[in-house]
Amino acid sequence: MRNMFSKFAGFSDNNMASVNDIRTMFPALERKVYGKNLVYLDNAATGQRLSSVIDAWNESTLSRNSNLHRAVHLLASEATQDYESTRDAVRDYLNAEFREEIIFTSGTTASINLVAFSFGEAFVKEGSEIIVSEAEHHSNIVPWQMLCQRKGAILRVIPVDDDGYLKLDELAAMLNDRTAIVCVTHISNVLGIINPVSEIVRLCHSYGVPVLIDGAQGAVHCRVDVRDIDCDFYAFSGHKIYAATGTGILYGKKRWLEAMPPYMGGGEMVGNVKFTGTTYAPLPMKFEAGTQNFSSAVTLKPAIEFLKLLNDNKLTQYHDEIRDFVLDSLLKDERIRLYGVPRGTNKDKIALFSFSVDGVHHEDIALILDKMGIATRSGQMCAEPVMDRFGVTGMLRASFAPYNTMQEAEYFIKCLDRAINMLK
Amino acid sequence: MTLKEAEEAVVDEFSIYDEWLDKYEYLIELGKNLKDYPESAKTDDRLIKGCQSRVWLDYSVQDGKIVFNADSDAIITKGIISLLIGIYSGRTAAEIASSDFSVVEKIGLKENLSPTRANGLVSMIDRIRQVAKENK
User: Fold this and answer.
1) A168 and A280 assigned to the same domain
2) Which range marks the domain in which residue A105 is found?
3) Does the CB of B52 have a partner CB in chain A at under 8 Å?
4) Which residue of the set B10, B27, B51, B85 is catalytic?
5) What is the CATH number of domain B3-134?
6) Number of folded domains in chain A?
7) Residue in B28, B53, B77 nearest the CB of A423
8) Which of A184-188, B15-19, B39-43, B77-81 has the highest mean pLDDT?
9) Nearest CA in chain A to B24
């Protein structure tokens, strides 16, 4: 084993121990597929679930399954406490100023739709301009298109260059006094390039324009500090950070959230309800209509604990070595066209690789890899405009998590070669 | 060979391969051997909906028999449609209508393909059935 890795500088047996420790926290990684070890490389879509997450869900379901915020009995009180302390944990992790800036949602898509509706109602009018980028997935395009249709606003698009970097000089030229909001991804789920979000926010703020950051991938791979980024909104999903599905967060600056009307009505989002009119609850409940997904929301707490653990660990270095190895292997292979190529330093790129192979359909490769035990994603990856930008109908994507090993990376590269040879 | 015999022959052929990778190799070969499909026939009305990859199915009626031709931009899909054509092309509408298409289950295609692909398979079969119905 040792020799196999010795070519990767800085790698030691100690790191190996830690990746194995991490793996034991994810029971799903033990499963076999078609009699082979599962090599799960579809992490950008869904991360496998932590056992601490599964435990938190079970615990919540078994001992405090009760609606939040309403009843006086013990179960309701415990459920509320658990839910609200999760909000505190998220606030702390994101370094948000106020706990009421943290809104629970069902995921990134729901978070963005909330802003598109409520911010749109308050601040977007006919002729307003909304700026997104060419690297967005559908969840950060379609809600804004719908808003533009409702309001007669105009959607403008920051292009990406051939390497997958945003053309920020074009953003600078686009900003004007009609710009209502700029919505960009922290990291594209196709290109895997980390966008300079702080710089984007500074630029937009200099024009008085608020910024929403789509953190679906960013929250997984970056230590997000919303006050440091100074973004106005930050949206992400729980299922990608190893928590339960159907969970998500919208961070929003209090002054915006307070000025925005509610998105959905019902449940405990109210002050008083009369047929003559209704007043609304203060933040954050104003934006949490109906019975919340409390059994799942509380799994964000152990998920965040795990993210913190990663930050303090040499595992990051090991993970970077995997990224460098896969990146080198793909770039070196002349049959492969990689989308999202880091310039100068690999640090701009996460271990997420979307590519196509000349003369071979992405779906064929994914099917063959599947039978070799490797789970990858093929298709448009919910980002059709990115496919159009690079002139393809789809791509193959391998996205790595901290529990993936160098052996898995090497096995992937070997199997990919075999699959291409089968298909050529 | 009757249609039933043709179906059984495919089941036999497939049973030779234990490993799914070998089955894929076989499908890839079938895909590569499918006869040329004209570019001009790659039209939307010949496109089968429900597949992740694009599949076109065309047919003509010759001496009361339906002759199919197809193409796909993905080679395994092309292998699957080629396999179906091998069984169902050159048959009368009544013959095709009499088949329960259980051959795809017998060779394990249905459960061993991703749901999107399985949907594509169902769409391919639906299209073949529909063609048979329209040409009764």
Assistant:
1) yes
2) 56-306
3) yes
4) B51
5) 3.90.1010.10
6) 2
7) B28
8) A184-188
9) A368
Q: In the prediction, which pLDDT does A276 show? A: 93
Closest CA of chain B from A368, distance in Å: 7
**CB contact (8 A) between residue B52 and residue A364:** no
Tokens 């698009």, located at residue: A157
In this prediction the pTM is 0.91
A374-403 residues touching B, CB cutoff 8 A: 378-379, 393-394
**Does residue A119 share a domain with residue A61?**
yes
A363–B contact, CB cutoff 8 A: yes
- Any idea what the CATH number is for the domain that residue A320 is in? 3.90.1150.10
Is B85 in a helix, a strand, or coil? Answer: helix
The angle that helices B20-33 and A406-423 make with each other, rounded to 10 degrees, is: 30
Last residue of a domain, one of A306, A331, A361: A306
Distance to chain A for B116, nearest Cα, Å:
11
Q: Flag whether pLDDT at A296 surpasses 90.
A: yes
Q: Is A415 a catalytic residue?
A: no
pLDDT in tens, A298-348: 999 999 999 998 876 678 899 999 999 999 999 999 999 999 999 989 999
pLDDT value for A5: 38
The domain spans of chain B are 3-134
Give the residue from A288, A306, A324 where a domain finishes.
A306
Kindly identify which residue of chain A lies nearest to residue B18, measuring between CA atoms.
A34
Nearest to A361 among B21, B25, B75 (CB): B75
Predicted ipTM of the assembly: 0.86
| Chain B 84-123, residues with CB within 8 Å of chain A CB atoms | 113-114, 117
> So what's the pLDDT on residue A30?
96
Q: In this model, does residue A9 exceed pLDDT 70?
A: no
pLDDT in tens, A45-72: 999 999 999 999 999 999 999 988 878 8
Across the interface, whether the CB atoms of A363 and B117 are under 8 A apart is answered yes
pLDDT of A357 > 60? The answer is: yes
How would you write A301-324 as a 3-class SS string? HHHHHHHHHHHCCCHHHHHHHHHH
